[in-house]
Structures are given as structure tokens and as C-alpha cells.
Design a protein that fits this description.
The chain is α+β, with helices and mostly antiparallel strands. The protein has a single domain (3-135), classed as Electron Transport, Fmn-binding Protein, Chain A (Pnp Oxidase, Chain A), CATH 2.30.110.10. It contains five helices and eight strands. It has helices spanning 3-21, 59-64, 95-101, 104-107, 138-150, and strands spanning 24-29, 37-40, 42-44, 49-55, 68-75, 81-92, 119-133, 160-165. Strands 1, 2, 3, 4, 5, 6, 7 and 8 form an eight-stranded antiparallel beta sheet that branches. Strand 3 and strand 4 form a beta hairpin. The longest helix is centred in the N-terminal third of the chain and has 19 residues, at 3-21. The two termini are 20 Å apart.
Length: 170
């Protein structure tokens, strides 16, 4: 395995770890032409996908059709990790997956709970991810910026940036 492959694997593992920690992000569709929406995601590491439970009467579902390119963005509370995930969002009829990811929180959004006619399951297999991370404390991050602003030819070390192509592996 090359150094680049190891770096890409480490970046992908960090992505899955961060997705497991952070419970919500923002999801939008290219075809919707509107705004992104806050959504809780469910990680499917094995299939390199994320799942969502949405309402049939949401703008997101109404404009989805049989599938559309989606963008899901994520930011950690400590502001040390950011990611934009891209893939095709499609409706799914998997009752098993819906049962697996259903929760009390999801139930709160549907009058009839799990059996509400509005419940829609969406799957987003990932094609590409762009992510940024820094392991520096806020103080060290600020010092890097200050050094770059005051020293000629200084470039701040603001962390790592990766673009991960998952389309071949999907």
C-alpha cells in the first residue's frame, strides 16, 4: 500500500468516525434549486452510504423523484472537522433498514410513528467526499494565523484537506 493510499484510508476512517459522532448535518439536492435542510443521518460504513428518514411532504422528498445528486455537509461542534459528501439520493423500500435505524427521535416527527404514511427512507451511496480537519487547539490555530499574517513568506499549517473518490469502490 502506498503512502497516498494509507493517507486516503486514514481520511476515510476519520470521516466514518466523525459521522458516527455528529448526529446531524445539512442535506440538499442539486435538482431542488432550494436550500439545504437539517437532517439526521445514519451511517452504513460497510456499504459506504448514509441513510435518512424524511417526510413525504418535505420539499426534499417532493423534488427527489427516482434519485438526484445530493450534498450532505457536516461540521463538528469543536469546529475541527468539516466535510461535504456527494452521492445520489434515492428512495428505498427497505423495511429492514427502516426498522434498524428507527428511533424515538424519528417517531417525534410523524403523528402515527413508524407506520405513518409520510415516512420515507432515503439512501445516499457516497461518490465523493471533500474534508478538512485540524488537530490544533484554537489557541495554536490562532497563533498559526498570526504568524502567517506577521512573517513574510509564512504559510499557516491549518490542518489536512482530502478529496476522496468513492465511486470506484461503491
Amino acid at each position: 500500500m502506498t503512502d497516498n493510499e494509507q493517507t486516503q484510508d486514514a481520511a476515510l476512517n476519520e470521516l466514518w468516525d466523525q459521522l458516527a459522532k455528529v448526529r446531524a448535518g445539512m442535506l440538499g439536492l442539486d435538482c431542488a434549486g432550494g436550500h439545504v435542510q437539517p437532517m439526521t443521518h445514519h451511517v452504513d460504513r460497510e456499504n459506504r452510504a448514509i441513510w435518512f428518514i424524511a417526510s413525504a411532504d418535505s420539499t426534499l422528498v417532493e423534488t427527489l423523484g427516482e434519485g438526484a445528486t445530493g450534498h450532505f455537509t457536516l461540521q463538528t461542534p469543536d469546529q475541527d472537522y468539516y466535510a461535504c459528501l456527494r452521492g445520489t439520493v434515492r428512495p428505498s423500500a427497505s423495511e429492514e433498514k427502516l426498522d434498524e435505524i428507527w428511533s424515538t427521535v424519528a417517531s417525534a416527527f410523524f403523528e402515527e410513528g413508524r407506520d405513518d404514511w409520510k415516512v420515507r427512507l432515503l439512501k445516499m451511496p457516497l461518490r465523493e467526499v471533500e474534508c478538512w480537519s485540524t488537530r490544533k487547539s484554537r489557541l495554536l490555530f490562532g497563533l498559526e494565523l498570526l504568524r502567517a499574517a506577521t512573517e513574510p513568506n509564512a504559510t499557516p499549517d491549518l490542518g489536512e484537506h482530502h478529496v476522496l473518490d468513492l465511486s470506484a469502490a461503491a
